[in-house]
Amino acid sequence: MKVLTQAEPAIAVLLPCYNEERTIGAVVRGFREALPKAAIHVYDNNSTDLTALQARAAGATVIREPRQGKGNVVRRMFADIDADIYIMADGDGTYDPQDAPQLVNTLLTERVDMVVGTRRGVTDDAGRAGHAFGNRIFNGLYQFLFGRDFTDIFSGYRVFSRRYVKSFPAVSGGFEIETEMSVHASMLRIPVCEMALDYGRRPEGSESKLSTYRDGAKILWMFAMLMKETRPARFFAALAAIFLLASAGFALPVLYEYAMTGLVPRMPTWILSIGLLMLAMIMMVAGLILDSVARGRAEQKRIHYLSHAPAHAGQAETQARRVRVA
């Protein structure tokens, strides 16, 4: 009797790091314990401490990415690593590696292409109340602009299928990469789900790399750019409305004066209002044209996404099942 066992999916753990020597060793060992067969890759983003040494000592494969910024690291990781399932987490110890098997199981059994570990207790992150407030504001803005697929767009603990990873363009350079990941899924209607997980505090001596105002401004800019690229009709309609209101504001007093006296004494104001009206019309036309272009780009992304095999959902359901061959 020969017993054939269906191969298990290849799992890669991806850990972008910058100056995390105090925590990265424990994080690598935690993932090694939780997923003994997974390949663990630490991408060192120009650390000035012993992050790379600690990660290598814990058993991870260490690769250096010289372009600074988490988005640049994620782009490199997704291009370099070949696997069936990808787990991405931070190297600061705030995400529990023991949750990884549950996230992987959810990806497979729910037949989705991304599982986001939403953060319980995020307001306790080293007392950064500003970050917690920003999270609520940006999550609400995301849901208004792009849909209600996600409640925590900034979570760094995610599991992806191969076809999500290989179809993700990764344009962002910094911490706004998580926003881009969420928009990619929302625009292509990729199946996703969320799982609430505990979010830990950083250990003493480990500092957050986030800047409340600088990174908040970058995320706002990314929202605007992604809106322009994915939903240009709404983006340019908003600009057209602004120009139209400005045009009306300048034109109404002139029209009122003309109705009363039959004269147009403020000709420059009238010309300005007409110019703003023309800009509003141009914005509307641009939005309509670019909306067709954006739809074509979305179709191309969708085709590329579908060109890759789905996650090994069948394997998850049959890992314990053996096919007996005489």
UniProtKB/TrEMBL annotation:
InterPro entries: Glyco_trans_2-like (IPR001173), Glycosyltransferase_2 (IPR050256), Nucleotide-diphossugar_trans (IPR029044). One of its GO terms (molecular function) is transferase activity. Residues 13-166 form the Glycosyltransferase 2-like domain. The keyword Ribosomal protein does not apply. Keywords: Membrane, Transferase, Transmembrane, Transmembrane helix. Pfam families: Glycos_transf_2 (PF00535). Coiled coil: none annotated. The chain crosses the membrane at residues 235-256, 268-290. Gene3D superfamilies: Spore Coat Polysaccharide Biosynthesis Protein SpsA, Chain A. It comes from the Bacteria. The keyword Transmembrane helix applies. This is Glycosyltransferase. It comes from Neoaquamicrobium microcysteis. The lineage of its organism: Bacteria, Pseudomonadati, Pseudomonadota, Alphaproteobacteria, Hyphomicrobiales.
